[in-house]
Amino acid sequence: GFARFLQFLAVEDQFPEWKMWDNFVNNVHYPVLISDSMESSHPIEIPVKDPEEIKEIFDGISYAKGGSILRMLNNYLTPEVFRQGIVHYLKRFSYRNTQTEDLWQALSEISKVDVKSFMEKWTSKIGYPVVTVEEIDDSKDEISLRLTQSRFLANGKKASDDTIWSINVVMRSPNGEQKFLLAKETDVVTLPRSWNDSWIKINYGHYGFFRVSYPDSLLQKLMDPISLQILPCIDRLGLQEDCFALAAAGKIPITSAL
């Protein structure tokens, strides 16, 4: 996972005109969302009792999902804090073996954030969530959205498990950016009055390893930002990928995706 994440991070730093993160979302992030939405997927972390078993888990989940959630964590902590945490981790454990918890501990010490709590479900559980959005209180002073998370399955079935992920939800409108930590099944986020009647893009930058299901009212407001290319390439691509995946799973009408 680190190999996949850092190869894009390093090239982006040296050649920003190559737009490596657009490439990452198109060729790494979204393909693994497809494979990880299958009931046959597996968690990133799997107990290995024999070296031969390692070959079985060196697949798209280990590399692509691993790289994707590290990109998500990098954004959540901020790139500079993440970098400082990695330096701290490498110095502490140089010439030694480590476990996942050692990395989370080192990052927590630098960031002052409980990284283990934030990341644990992303590495230990199978699959990922879809965040369903509802408008619930569009008053003169503010707009409120109800966000509900549930595991997304490509076949449209209801998942048998009730995993609750910690989701850093980044929302953008023409009037600014808001971040909200969704750490339970359902929660409500209240947005500023200035966001009323404007488009709202959720999971802006597509750092989060989840899909978003919009109500028609919010989806329609995104049509102009898409056609006028106000939204960056990553967000236009991500919105399209989410809509078609949700339509294929029977979660939204195919007319919404089209």
Explain what this protein looks like in three dimensions.
By secondary structure, the protein is of the alpha+beta class. The protein has 2 domains: 123 residues, Neutral Protease Domain 2 (Neutral Protease, domain 2, Orthogonal Bundle), CATH 1.10.390.10; 129 residues, Sandwich (Immunoglobulin-like), CATH 2.60.40. The chain has 11 helices and 7 strands. The strands form 2 sheets. Strands 5-2-1-7 form a 4-stranded mixed sheet. It has a 3-stranded antiparallel sheet with strand order 4-3-6, with no helix packed on it. Belongs to the peptidase M1 family. This is Puromycin-sensitive aminopeptidase. InterPro entries: ERAP1-like_C_dom, Peptidase_M1_aminopeptidases, Peptidase_M1_dom, Peptidase_M4/M1_CTD_sf.
Layout: helices, strands, pairs:
Elements: H1 2-14, H2 20-35, H3 54-57, H4 60-77, H5 79-92, H6 100-111, H7 115-124, E1 129-135, E2 143-151, E3 167-173, E4 176-182, E5 186-191, E6 201-202, E7 211-213, H8 216-221, H9 223-227, H10 233-248, H11 254-257
Parallel strand pairs: 1-7
Antiparallel strand pairs: 1-2, 2-5, 3-4, 3-6
